[in-house]
Structure formats: C-alpha cells, structure tokens
Write a structure and sequence with these properties.
Layout: E1 26-33, H1 49-64, E2 73-76, H2 111-118, E3 125-128, H3 133-145, E4 151-158, H4 177-180, H5 187-202, H6 210-221, H7 227-231, H8 238-243, E5 246-248, E6 251-252, E7 262-270, H9 271-274, E8 282-291, H10 301-319, E9 328-330, H11 339-346, H12 356-360, H13 377-381, H14 387-397, E10 411-416, E11 421-428
Helix pairs in contact: 10-11
Length: about 425
Amino acid sequence: MATEYWPNSRLRTKTGLGVWEHRGKVAVAGIGFSPTMRRWDGADLSTSVGALTIIAAQKALDDAGISKGEIDGVVACPIGMGDNWGPESVTGRPYFAPPYDTEDGLIGTSSDWLIKNMGLWNAKTTFHGATCFNTAMSVGAQVVGDGLANTILVIRGMGNPPGRYHQSPETNYSGPRQWSAPFDWRLEPLIAYGFDQYCRKYGKTHDMVAPFVLNQHRNGLLMPEGYYAQNRPEMPTKEDYLAARWVVKPMSIMDMDMPIQTAVAFVVTTGERARGMKQKPVYILNHASQRGVVRSTTETLDETEAFAANIAAMCYEGSGLTAKDLDVFNPYDGYTLFTQYYLDAFGWHGVKRGEALDFYAGDISVEGPHPFSPSGGNNGNGRTRCWGQYDCIQQLRGQAGKRQVNIKAETAIAGAFTPGTSDWTVYCTSPD
C-alpha cells in the first residue's frame, strides 16, 4: 500500500490551540545536503533526485552519528519540482519513456522509495507531507511528538528534469484564467499585483528591494551547499538588479529563484534521544501551517497581509515566544516581493507593517545587528524551500561558518511558501 499523505486536519492550522503539546520534546539531531546542480540530464542515474536523496540522508545519519538501523520512520515531500508526478498528476502517463516504469526516484523521492533503495530495514512508519520540505518538517515533528516513530528521516528531493519547467497540461488561455494565470502559473501576476499595491499603500518602490536581494546572494555565496557557491560564485551588483528584465512588472527576473536539482534530509527524534547523539540538539518549539482561502482567483493585498499576520500569530502562540524572543529569522524568499509581508507580520527587530523595505536599507548583513535571512534563501542558493530550515539548525549549533550571526542565536524560525499556503517551524537551543 502506498504511503498516505498527512491530512491538513492534523496540522496546526489555526490560532487558539495554545502552546504545542510537544514543545521542546522533539529535536533535530542531524542534517545533510547532497551536491547541487542546475538540472538532471535525464540519463545519469547517479545524479537523479533519488540518488541525491540517498546522499543527503546518509550525510544526515553521519551528522547525527547513528546507523541506518536506528531509523524507524521516513517522512517525505515526494513531489518533484517542475514535474507531474504524484497526486497532482493529471497526465495519466509517465514523464519518461520506458525502460523507466515509475517517476519515483527520478524527479521526486517518496518515503517508500528511500526505504527500499537505501535499505532502511527498520523503518515501518511512513508519511508524506504535500507542498514542500517545510510541510514535511511539520509532519515529522508531529509524528515523533505523537510517538508514531522514535527516530525518523525527513527528506525532500528537488528534481529539475530536462524540458520546460512546470508546464501543466491543463493550460487554458481563455476565460478568467487568461488574466490570473496567462502562463498557467498564477503566482507571478499575483505577487506582482500585490507588491504594486503594497508600494502604493506605503509609498515604496521596487528599487528598495535591491539591498535585500544583494544580501541574499552574499549570504548564499557563504553557504557551501548552495548552487551559486558551487557553480556561479559571481556576486551581482545593484546595477544588475535595477537593470534586470521584467517578468511581470514590477517583478524582475532577479526577484525569482532558480530551479535546481538537489536533496536535503533531517534526522528528527525525541529530545531525550537527541541528547545522546553526536551533535548539540536543536529542539522544536512549534510548527504551524496555513491553508488560506481567498474570495477570488487572485489574492488581494488585505488578504495577503491578513494571512501573514495569522501565521505569525500561530508561530508565536504555539512556541510561547514573542517577537522580542526571536533571534534568527529565515522567512521565505522564492519570490522576493512577498518576503516583506513576513517581516512586517512577525515584527522582527521592531519592524512594523509597511516598514520592511526601509529596514532593508540598514545593516542586514550577518555581521551586523540585524542579520536578516542569514541562509541566503532560495534567491541566494537556488529553489529548494529548505535553506532557511537548514540555516536555523546551523546557526543554533554555532556551525554556520562565515554566515554565523554575531547576535544571540538561541531561537530561530523558518518557513515557506506564500502567506496563504505556508508551513513554519520554530527552533531553540534549550527545551525549557
């Protein structure tokens, strides 16, 4: 029987739930990243997303100092990026021609595939978390907290196969979708429209995003696991950003992350078990998810800001923290033009609604007093939606290298995707 998807009804998706019942009782004990490349060639199985996921998983085990036999569960987000594999498939046929009989392990990696191909003989508990690695982290935290498994791998393989990226077969250039999704991907016009309204409301301009984008690339070049650090170590300039071609004005190509091929894995276990492993435990204080509903096909600015405020409230309520308690902040930046919603909503370092772009103009470097998004995010490393989570663990361990912040690093938070569909994890160095 195929692994089941964790239902949204079992995620923490609303305020009023109080502090998470497993606060500080679950911990991340190991992390691992595979090599990172632009795309898969469609032929070399040693660089397929499945092979990369095995590499990342073994690195996470080594980091924790444990063996494969100690893993009793796997949680995955198996949907490969840029593909039609999994429950979202509407093609009715595989992407690749025979001799391949499945997409699993080629453009996405399921829990079942990893168990079989990595030889995780003791892994009996499996779940899938839809959307992205951040969802899988929420599921993994709850699985361990509920006692469904003791020590698990949480994995995500990001596939970028040959061909056009993310072209779904239901493309329709007529009717309402011609305005909200002219290229069959509604986010670009949605985000550009929302950012335009944000600038009009608060008297800001697109050019004010430049310091943030440049800082993301700088931080990314300090992330050895990142795509740019490994493959394109050139640092862009402000002039590059201001001259970048528009995709959907006022969103330029430098406001968008780049699809890549890689994989990540975390070892998640009980706090008690983590204290006996190789690394300093990083405890999970809370996980929160949002599945917002809009009144039309395109989110309004009011809806987006309300979603962002709600996810911030859930994160703080469930963790027992306030904005003043939050040290390391890694909000999602796959499209840089909605990162400001998170900064405004979480109130990190005193930022109020409408002030995020002004905040970018200050010292947001990792060496300074406001080390915003020290991971470099997707914009500075390539599209994975997990750099923030990875950096949070490194920062709280004191293992972020040249990215290590100079401020106190005892709590951290990371999450993705848009404010309306979002999953976040709150971390700390002490369970108390």
